[in-house]
Amino acid sequence: MCRTGRRYVVPVSCGGNVLSPVWYISTTAMTNRFHVPAACLLATLLVAPLAAQQAQAPTAPKPSPKETEVWEPEPRVVTPGSTPDAAPADAIVLFGGQNLDEWVNAKGGGPAGWTVADGVFTVNKPVGNIQTKRSFSNYQLHIEWRVPANITGKDQGRGNSGLFLASTGGGDAGYELQILDSYNNRTYANGQAGSIYKQAIPLANAMRKPGEWNVYDVIWTAPVFNADGSVKSSARVTVLHNGVLVQNNYEFKGETVYIGPPTYKAHGATPIKLQAHGDPSEPLSFRNIWLRELK
């Protein structure tokens, strides 16, 4: 029991108001200068210690940039070519200027039969299409092509060929990126150079004049099929023509066809095909073709 006459001084707040002066607590009497309910005094006596503890609680640690750093897996080193157009160290060289050993005739698989001279090869139209010996799925492709300076004809009959990103059979079966002389040569927009033939108009006409070399840089993502042959994911392609973006992750509606709507048919890894078009104009030439397989 407290001794008679002893006083305790307690600062009190209640209902959001600070009461001043203070409560005087005595063993014989309790006096104050304001009328305050006893419940408020009790609440203050209980809450004040808790508030003091909360005020002393440690603050959350300051975020560190290391929390968002990812160190694994580390990208593998690929030595680039000596020039922007040269093949990187991990590339498959499909034509380096010497021979067509990486290519075969698309009809029967025999020798390609196109003409190789002075570091380039030229379409031999009577022989027909050629395709790679190897088959590929996803890849990065670099290919250079030239319309001859003496080209004749107009519309689709002027410097026509095609790069089939995936050849799915004989003839023109597959997914075609159009090759054509589109320098001052008007034709239907989804059939000019840089188009996905009869599907996607190029974003720009970046054609160089006849006699100069054009470059396609291609990122090809092959379609994926379910076990029943239905499409799980469509084919996609990004194309730069002479450094200008002409197809931006375009999603194929199916294989490219001359007549009718495009459709898919299930397939796996496929060769890449170059077209010997039947138009009467002078044949095109190719050089410096290389490919990097992508996962």
Secondary structure blueprint with pairings:
Layout: E1 7-14, E2 17-26, E3 30-31, H1 38-55, E4 92-95, E5 103-105, E6 115-117, E7 120-122, E8 130-132, E9 139-146, E10 161-167, E11 174-179, E12 213-221, E13 224-225, E14 231-233, E15 236-241, E16 244-251, E17 273-274, E18 285-293
Protein traits:
Jelly Rolls, about 300 residues, elongated, eight-stranded antiparallel beta sheet, 18 strands, disordered N terminus, five-stranded antiparallel beta sheet, 2 domains, mainly beta, single chain
Describe the structure.
This protein has 295 residues and is mostly beta strands. It has 2 domains: 7-55, no CATH class; 92-293, Exo-inulinase, domain 1 (Jelly Rolls). It has one helix spanning 38-55, and strands at residues 7-14, 17-26, 30-31, 92-95, 103-105, 115-117, 120-122, 130-132, 139-146, 161-167, 174-179, 213-221, 224-225, 231-233, 236-241, 244-251, 273-274, 285-293. The strands form 4 sheets. Strands 4, 6, 7, 9, 12, 15, 16 and 18 form an 8-stranded antiparallel β-sheet that branches. The protein has a 5-stranded antiparallel β-sheet with strand order 5-8-17-10-11, with no helix packed on it. The protein has a 3-stranded antiparallel β-sheet with strand order 1-2-3, covered by helices on one side. Strand 15 (236-241) and strand 16 (244-251) form a beta hairpin. The longest helix is centred in the N-terminal third of the chain and has 18 residues, at 38-55. It is elongated, with a radius of gyration of 38 Å.
